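This week, study the protein below.
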Amino acid sequence: MQIIRSPWSNPFRNCALEASLLKECSDNVLLLYINSPSVIVGRHQTVAAEVDEKFCAENNIPIVRRISGGGAVYHDEGNVNYAFIVNNTDGALELALDYAFIAPIVAALRALGLDAVVGDRKEIRCGGYKVSGTASHVSGSRQLFHGTLLYNTNLQQMERALKGNPALRGKGIPSIPDKVANIAPLLPVRESTEQFLLRIADFLQHSDFGKR
């Protein structure tokens, strides 16, 4: 599997890159990237119900709609994003239902000494707190499975940005609130978000998963 580190921090470009790799590429790819502050909403969500649009506008936080379902998430320079984009020639779509894409991320976190486990909604939890949410999208014989890793995110700004008005939801899909935590305080050594990303990438590159 090819591992790609996006050169961009622009959330519009990285969402577009995911879509392009899904629809125009035939290789199995793991895309890693770090976005500047932004809110990424699910394909079927009502923005006003999930996001404080006034707060985001005042703080230059763009709101981007992704192609996958799921709930709204906040990105910033303390958040690592991963996206598995694969073919279905070896049954990858079926394996995805069995958490095949989450397993290597969990293994990477455990290799760093964390008690990472998979939750009921395909999220990753450490010490009872959610540190990674996931979503997926199928296009023909290709699948996108992507998620976040809260490493050193501004949790106060995240909470403020993701405070919409539920009364405006209509038929939109709601985000599911959960207790979240950053990974950085759980590790014995503090490092930058980029260093953390590189450690995850190195583990995956040399794992059995990276050789697929």
Notes: The longest strand covers residues 79-87. The mean pLDDT is 91.
